[in-house]
Specification:
Layout: H1 92-140, E1 189-200, E2 210-213, E3 218-221, E4 227-230, E5 236-238, E6 243-246, H2 253-262, E7 276-280, H3 283-289, E8 294-306, E9 309-320
Antiparallel strand pairs: 1-9, 2-3, 2-4, 4-5, 6-7, 7-8, 8-9
Amino acid sequence: MAANPQAPIPARPGSPAGPAPHGGPPHGNARPRSTQSPPGATYGPPPSGTPTQAMPTQAMPSGQPTQAMPVAPPAQTMPSAASGSGPPVATAPRSRGGLLVVTLVVAVLALVVGLAGIVIAAIALGRSDKATTLATSANGRPLPPADAETPAAPEPASPTTEPSDTATETLEPGVTASPGDISPTAEFAIAYQDQHLRVQTEKCLSGWGAAVDFDEPRVIGGTEGDMVYEQCNPGAVQTGLPLAEVSGQSATPADCLENIRTTPAQSPVAPAEGLTFCFLTSRNDAAARGTTQKLVFVTVDSITEKNDHGILNITLRAWNVPE
C-alpha cells in the first residue's frame, strides 16, 4: 500500500509528540502533556539481523491535533554466544579439576624426589662400606713398593750403649755389671747395715703398694722403686732386679752372687717371717744417681695387717760392689 504524503511523521523517541509547545504557560486548566515514554519501550535502531516491521499510517482529519502512534515493543534479540551476554559458564568444576591435577603432580614429584634421595643414600652407604673394607684389607697387608727399584741394604745397627739392667754389656777392664761379671772373692765394703723399715700398703685389695729405695735406704710411695710390697697378709714382693734367697743376715756377698747365678727367684715372691732375700741393684741406675752398685740383704721381721693395710717390717744390710 502506498504511503500517504499527508500522514504525519511519527515522533522521534525522547521528544514529545505533536506540535511544538508555545513559549508561554498553558491556557486554562489544561495540563501539560507528558513526555515520558511508555514503560518497556526501547528506542534506537533495531538490532542487526532483526526484520523491521513497517508501522501502519493513518491520516488524521484536519483541525484535530496530531497524536503519536503507539510504538510497537522492540523485538527481543536472541542471546548470542559470541556477544558474551548469555548466562555465565560454569567454571567452578573446571577450577576444582585443575587444582586436583596440580596437587597430584606435586605429590608425584615429591615422591620421585624422595625415592631419588633414598637411592643416592644407598649408593653412598655402599661406597662407604666398600672404602672401609678396602682400608681394612690394606691395613692387613703391606703396601706394594712405589717403584721397582731394589731397596738399599740396611746399615748394620750400632751396638747399644745402654742395655737393660739384667743384660750383660761390654765393659772396660775392672768394671762389673752382672752377677757373672762380679768376682766372688772381691772385697766388698759395707754400705749400710741394720736399717729397719716399715712398709705399709695402700689397701689390702688395691694394686697400689709401697716401694723401697735400696740406695739410701728409704720407703717411697707408688710403684717406682727397687722393691714394691703389695696387698697384705702376706702380700707380695715385686722387683725388676736379680734376686735369690739366702740363709740369713750371716750370709756373705759371695753366697748371694752364687745363689743368684744358680737358684734365682722369680718376681713376685711371697714374703715370710724370718726369710732373707738377696738383691743386686742396677749398675746403670746407680751411675745415673751418682752412687755405686750394691748387694742388698732384706730380712722379713714381721707381717701384719691393720685397718685394711698390709704392714711389712724388714731389716736391710748392703755392700758396695767393687768396680
